[in-house]
Fold histidine kinase.
Amino acid sequence: MSRKIILLITASVFGLIALSFIQAYLIKNTYYLRKEAFIDKANDQVTKIGSYGTPIDSIFDAISDTFIKDLDKYNVKKVSKEELLDRLRHISDSLNPRFIKEYEKEINFKEIGYNLKYHRQLKDLVILDSLRTDTIFNNNSGKALKLVGHSFDSNPELLIGNSTWETSRTFEERVQGRIQKIKYHLIFETSNYINIDDWKKIILNEMRSLLLFSFCIFIFVIALFYYSIKNLITQKKISDIKTDFINNITHELKTPLSTLSLATKILKKEDNNASVIENTINTIERQNLRLQKLIDQVLNNSLGYQDLELHKLTVKSVPLISEIVNDFKIAHEETILLDLDVSEENNTLNLDKFYITTAIVNILENAVKYGATEIKVSSFVKNNYWNLEINDNGIGISKKNQKLIFNKFFRAENKDVHNVKGLGLGLYYTHQILKAHNGSISVNSEKGKGTRFTIVLPINKL
Ligand code: ADP
């Protein structure tokens, strides 16, 4: 893969990761905003319940009236701090069942669609007078003092806000026989908590369509990215293959053309004798034939299996293969040892003899081209199909290239054999021919040891 493509993929992956992070950040923010809005809404419902003049308001009044009297006693040291808090706890506990009853009546009436529990607890209790600041209670100490509402200690609770009751109080008290005016300032701060069963689920449910939409967009972008990169790589491969093909065909055309030009120069000479002229004409004829073959190869061998016009005949397998192999043997007798094993009983095949011969000869010629000194051809029947195996001891094909050799224009880099000509069309064409016959071709090879091609064709039962 070229550097440019690798760079492009890396940049796109980083872009995609950055986008995913932004998306996740936005979703997280939306979640928090929704949570706040949800709490605000619940808060609103709860505060309205205790508004002025309602039965709940009268419960709060009852608590504060009793409490303020106890606080007066605390101020003149008639009750201790612990007793004061115990009395507050006691009055709150005794009024709490009434509070819960009234609260549930109101909340059911509102039909808010979820189970909204509420409680109020003491946060700070401070009294101030001209001499001192007395902190009677502070929830930072770790102790909680629930005033009214439900208990929901085990569930996660949400703090919806604090409310402060501040008042200045003056009362008269007989101290050592004399009436004295006692003044103090009260700060009574409470915290309001709510608890909703599955509130996270409710918020996520509200965000369902957003989450689903984001997820779909994300998948869509990933798919688009994958498809674009795949397309880019394929285009690059095709462009490389085309460049290779142009180089190969230029190389193939160069030799006959330069031979032709040389031959013309020879013929132009006036002192040529008859045998030189005849030899040169023969060369011109051969090179002309080679050029013609090359052009035919490009035109015909790049056809797909749907374009092949088959003229099928019923033929016997043994004579067919014997004829092809023997013809080939005659042409290559000096360079190749060719062994044919047709121990099968004669099978009937329905095929186009011309095309099948071309396919088999392509494989045999490749064996010679790619370094074989020995070829073994054998045929047999397996699972009602006719099999033809062509084994050679040539340079072999790497595992990676075995997957590619049937592709159009594919040529492996063969450094082990010099000056091997080809256009990368032979095996593609062979494959197309077999496909057109409802057959197949496969390869099995080990680099440096040799190659076995197996052709499979259906047997004609009639
Ligand atoms: P060409 O021979 O024109 O290159 P082919 O389509 O016939 O094209 O073959 C494709 C590639 O398969 C060849 O370039 C070669 O690398 C490899 N190949 C084919 N047959 C053999 C073989 N018998 N031994 C080793 N390599 C082979």
User: Anything to note?
Assistant: Residues 366-367, 369-370, 392, 394-397, 405, 410-412, 414, 422-428, 451 surround adenosine-5'-diphosphate (CB under 6 Å). Residues 32 and 368 are 74 Å apart (CA to CA). The chain has three domains: 3-206, 222-301, 307-458.
